[in-house]
Design goal:
Strand content: 15-25%
Number of strands: 13
CATH class of one domain: Alpha Beta
Number of helices: 11
Largest sheet: 9 strands, mixed
CATH architecture of one domain: 3-Layer(aba) Sandwich
Length: about 375
């Protein structure tokens, strides 16, 4: 909903990004997968010959790039992922006295945002950790981040899969509008490599690791620059086409532990068919409600899941093929980073825009879930 004239205006005052040092190319990923697949086929050669088991199909760089547009991805640990006998990142468990992995990533992204903001962390009134996977049920990751940064107030986690960041932006904007706080820190730490099945040809290339941060501030205390939030809209429609059944109840059903559905699974073609029209219509409808012409948007910062989805949504919203840079694509380098993707796109590709320019931060993903956040560059 648009913010009423009597409510404090929410402003995106600063953003931050943490990118892991290690990166995996498509060629490296394909080599690891194909080596594993060849070994599996050799192990089950008799069954394959008897027709009781289907041989695994090799992957290829060409297949990955055509299906997704992804060329590489950043990860916290590439050694474990590229080991054909492991195919899982190696992330040693930390003691309770150490900063957890997700919190550490979030803190680094938050520090980047705080440096850009130019104000002390003590001015933050709330911390939201909005991400697709939390590494534990409790205590909340957001509270650990809050403590590490020396922030008072309150903090909590929220998960709406790939749409977590836009849902977090709306939540933060609502806190600002209600007068609950003057500034909110939202962090999006994503270790997607840990919930990806690198032994599944159809999805082994999809995800990467990263963390982003956004500081949302009341307009009446914000300095120059930043982005005014013109309006937010959220939507959810239940679907099993993207799912992850990992959870605490797995312990009560040990027969299911280790099965493929305890990691990311999706029906990609169904997702494409369902989500593209839903999101395109949502964007156009929301723009109209705000009195905006979607064809006049200067920049689209969409969820970075699949280049084919993004290009089609861009054409539907703008009514033409987007010009270079209008429909920001960062998934070629970062892959799908779940909730963080649209924030990375915004963080890396907005500085050169002029005051008055209007753009859209948009997410879509599991749930199904979708969020639109229209923003205008401030002087």
């Amino acid at each position: 909903m648009p913010v009423s004239a009597s409510s404090p205006t929410a402003v995106i005052a600063a953003t931050g990004l943490f990118t892991p040092e290690q990166s995996i190319s498509n060629a490296e990923l394909v080599e690891a997968y194909n080596t594993w697949a060849e070994r599996e086929n050799a192990r089950h050669a008799d069954e394959i010959a008897a027709g009781t088991r289907e041989a695994l199909t090799p992957s290829s760089v060409e297949f990955i790039e055509k299906a997704s547009g992804i060329k590489s991805r950043f990860v916290l640990d590439k050694t474990g992922v590229l080991d054909p006998e492991r195919m899982v990142p190696h992330l040693p468990e930390r003691s309770n006295d150490e900063l957890s992995i997700l919190a550490e990533m979030a803190v680094k992204a938050a520090q980047d945002a705080l440096a850009a903001w130019g104000k002390p962390a003590s001015e933050i009134g709330a911390v939201l950790c909005a991400a697709s996977n939390m590494q534990r049920p409790y205590p909340a990751m957001a509270i650990e981040v809050q403590q590490a940064l020396g922030i008072e107030g309150f903090a909590f986690d929220m998960n709406v899969a790939c749409s977590s960041a836009t849902f977090g932006l709306k939540t933060a904007a609502d806190f600002i509008a209600s007068g609950s706080v003057k500034a909110v820190l939202m962090v999006n730490p994503e270790v997607c490599s840990a919930h990806l099945n690198f032994k599944d040809r159809d999805s082994h290339f999809i995800f990467g690791d990263v963390a982003t941060a956004v500081i949302i501030e009341a307009g009446d205390q914000a300095g120059p620059g930043g982005w005014e939030i013109l309006g937010t809209r959220l939507k959810t429609v239940f679907s099993n086409n993207i799912r992850n059944n990992f959870g605490f109840l797995n312990n009560a059903a040990p027969e299911g532990i280790g099965k493929p559905d305890k990691l990311f699974v999706q029906q990609g073609r169904k997702v494409f068919k369902d989500v593209v029209p839903m999101v395109s219509e949502m964007i156009v409808d929301h723009a109209g409600e705000l009195g905006l012409d979607p064809k006049g948007l200067k920049r689209l910062w969409l969820h970075q899941a699949n280049i084919n989805m993004n290009e089609m949504i861009g054409r539907k919203v703008l009514g033409r093929d987007p010009e270079p840079g209008e429909n920001v694509i960062i998934l070629d380098d970062y892959a799908n980073t779940s909730s963080a993707g649209s924030v990375i796109a915004f963080h890396l590709h907005q500085e050169e825009m002029a005051p008055g320019d209007v753009g859209l931060i948009c997410s879509f993903g599991a749930g199904y879930s979708a969020g639109t956040v229209f923003v205008r560059k401030r002087a």
